[in-house]
Amino acid sequence: MNVRGERECRDCGNRWSYYETGAIECPQCESLRSVGVTERATHTDTPVTLELNAHRTRFGEARGTLPSEGVDELKRDLRRYVHKRGFINGGELRRLDSTYLAARELIEAVDVYDRLRDPTEFDQEYLLALLAGADEGDRPETTAVPDDMWEARGMAAARAVGEFREDALTFLDELVAGENAAAEPTGDSGRDETAEASSTVSVSTSGESAVDEANRVEPARDVLGRIRDQTKRLEALQGGVNPETADALVDAANAVGDYVRTGDPKALSRAADELDGLEP
Fold it and tell me: How far does CA 213 lie from the centroid of its chain?
């Protein structure tokens, strides 16, 4: 959605960032009478914190199987977090970050672990390691993922990359719309009547070798199409691939994001190289 990032309270005059609070309620006087005072920007993210301390206490005492109580609450909190998260913040395309990935992987890992008939010590250690570090974005290394848990890493990558890809395409659409609006003639008054429409997203153009905004859209879309194909492949395999393959898909998605933000052709090459290693 396109929102005005800074709001002003009509009752007390306080100003705050909607991007940081996600609320139209004044944080100073709690009035609901506020108005946006800056230009609109595309925004899909919502301020949310992943808090797992209570779950760590409960699950840290588990032996062999998950505790009979608390699993649904854990998954509820994790899903609430990922559902509120987005990758466009105030008109800027953000990276597919490690905390989001860890939360996604923990959701999948809990489900996989719960289905195992005879979970091993390594399976439990992996699950508890995820729980221990997810809110700080810490995940086990690929070599530490047990074979039975490959599905969790793979499905987390597929779903996370799928969500990132949707936001990246939205960002590119807004970038094109802004370029088209900026190219239209101004009104009789000479005032640029499309200035607001052209400012919903922003990218960097400062690099010496940076590709122009308009010229980076189609190459990015092409690579995002290849990413879509690999995402569908992971889903068809139910995530059952080597964890290094899952992480490579994430790296490819982030490299495309870097290219969109900076116009650096090396970033696009990194994305293509990652995908080349995944395709038959």
Answer: 22
The secondary structure element, H or E, covering residue 249 is: helix 243-262
Count of CA atoms in the C-beta half-sphere (13 A) of 112: 26
For residue 195, the SS3 value is coil
In the chain, where the domains are located: 2-38, 48-186+193-198+206-280
| ∠ Cα 168 169 171 (to 5°) | 65
pLDDT digits (tens, 9 = 90+) for 12-63: 888 878 888 887 888 888 888 888 887 888 999 998 999 999 998 887 655 5
Count of other CB atoms within 10 angstroms of residue 147:
12
Spatial contact of 3 and 41, defined as CB atoms under 8 Å apart: yes
Distance between CA atoms of residues 232 and 227, nearest Å: 9
**Nearest to 66, CA basis, from 116, 104, 101, 27:** 116
Cα–Cα distances in Å, from 33 out to 23, 46, 73, 82, 150? 12, 21, 35, 30, 50
- For residue 25, what is the DSSP state? S
pTM over 0.90: no
Q: Can you tell me the distance from the alpha carbon of 58 to that of 120, in angstroms, rounded to the nearest whole number?
A: 19
What the block records as the tokens of 98 is: 């490690």
Residue of 259, 175, 251 whose CA lies nearest to 220: 259
Rg of the Cα trace of the chain?
22
Q: Identify the pLDDT of residue 71.
A: 87
Query: At CB < 8 A and 24+ separation, what contacts does 272-276 make?
Result: 272/223, 272/226, 274/248, 274/249, 275/223, 275/226, 275/227, 275/230
